[in-house]
Structure formats: C-alpha cells, structure tokens
Amino acid sequence: MRRIVCFGDSLTSGHGIGFAAAYPALLHQRVRRAGLPFEVVNAGVARATSGDALTRLDAALQGDVRVLVVALGINDGLRGVPVERIDANLGRIIEAAQARGIANGDWVSIESPEGSVRARARLNADLDPRVVVGEHGSWQGCAELGAPGYDPFGPMGANFNLLIGTAALDPVSGTASHRSYLCEIRSIAQERKQEEVSRTTGARAGIQGGA
User: Fold this and answer.
1) What is the domain partition of the chain in residue ranges?
2) Per-residue pLDDT tens for 136-188?
3) Would residue 181 be called left, alpha or beta, if left means φ above 0 and alpha means ψ between -120 and 50 degrees?
4) CA–CA distance, 144 with 194 (Å, rounded to integer)
5) Which residue blocks in 107-187 are alpha helix, DSSP H?
C-alpha cells in the first residue's frame, strides 16, 4: 500500500500524549475518512536530532513511500547543534527522499490527485529537482517515426490533460490551471521490480507453508 511517513522526534512519536493522540494518528484517521489509499506511518523517535534521523532514514523510506513529512530540528537547537549542520542534515534527508533512481530514458509514471500518465524521462540539470516538465503533444501513433499510439484516457497513455483537475480555476478566465500542478513521479521499472520481489516472496511463503 502507498505510504505517508511522518519522520520526526517526540512531537511526531507522541511522547507524553500517547501514540493515538499524535498527529500521525490523527492524519491516518482523516486519510481513512477521505477514502484515500494510503497508510500513515509514525516514524517519530523521542529526543531524536537531525543527525540521529539520518541513521534511520533508509528504514523509514522502505516500501511505497509517496509522502515524507519531516519534523526535526528542535532537539538540535536544544543541544546547541550549529545551524549549518542542521541545514546540511535536513538537506541530505530531503535529497535522499527525492532520489527516485530514475535514469535518462526510463519509463516513469507521472501521477497527480486526478490521474496518471506514462512517459519517458529526459533529465535536465538546469531544472530544479522538484520540477517536472511535461509537453502537451500528440498521443496518436506515427508509423513514419516508429512511434506507437497510446490510449488517451488510460494510465499507460501520455495525455497530460488527465493530470489536471478543475477544483482550482483561474478567477478571471474561469479555466483550469494548465501551467502547473502538484504531481508525483515514479520509476515504472522499480515498481515492477518490487512487484516481482513481492510475488517471489509470496511464492516462497506458500511453498514453506505447504511443506
């Protein structure tokens, strides 16, 4: 299942107020009420600093993590950790979370709250790491170029209009935003590898259970 990981210190873990009263538990309740397909994980540890958090980051990012909430720094301040070091630690956490393992030319899934499309990645060092640029082109096939066609209304197609919602409209023209929209990008190859591992693990468990 897709995961939202809350990564922090005692303010996240619920130290002093209880696990059930901490904000990750309240967030989980809201996600469930909204019917969203996410699991909220409380990865908070009391008295943790940004340096401590780096040592357990890999474990926190295991699985299909779509959102990482980082709530760290107060314990660093209480212990007199230099601001430069705090910034560096938080930067490393953010960079590690953003690293998708996507190479130039890889097939990726671009997803928004409205839908998803498939495209090939073309990396551009001049773009901010948080920015994905999608060109609105044709999804029709072209035999002369050897380009296949795509279903314009399916998740394996390349119709970027499927990513744009109508909840936020321009106050003057009344049109939807086609300039920018919140999205997530994932490597389809990595997703398939995870599915293969899950199937293999399940098969092994089935063999062991039947032995």
Assistant:
1) 2-98, 107-206
2) 666 677 788 777 777 777 767 778 888 887 777 778 887 776 667 778 787 88
3) beta
4) 36
5) none
Which has the closest alpha carbon to 12: 75, 58, 84?
A: 75
- Under DSSP, the state recorded for 144 is G
Q: Are 164 and 176 in contact (CB under 8 A)?
A: yes
Q: Which homologous superfamily does the CATH classification assign to the domain defined by 2-98?
A: SGNH hydrolase (3.40.50.1110)
Query: Using an 8 Å Cβ cutoff, are 124 and 130 in contact?
Result: no
pTM (two decimals): 0.52
Cα–Cα distance measured from residue 158 to residue 170, given in angstroms and rounded to the nearest whole number: 25
pLDDT over 70 for what percent of the chain?
82
Closest CA to 92 of 7, 180, 155, 175: 7
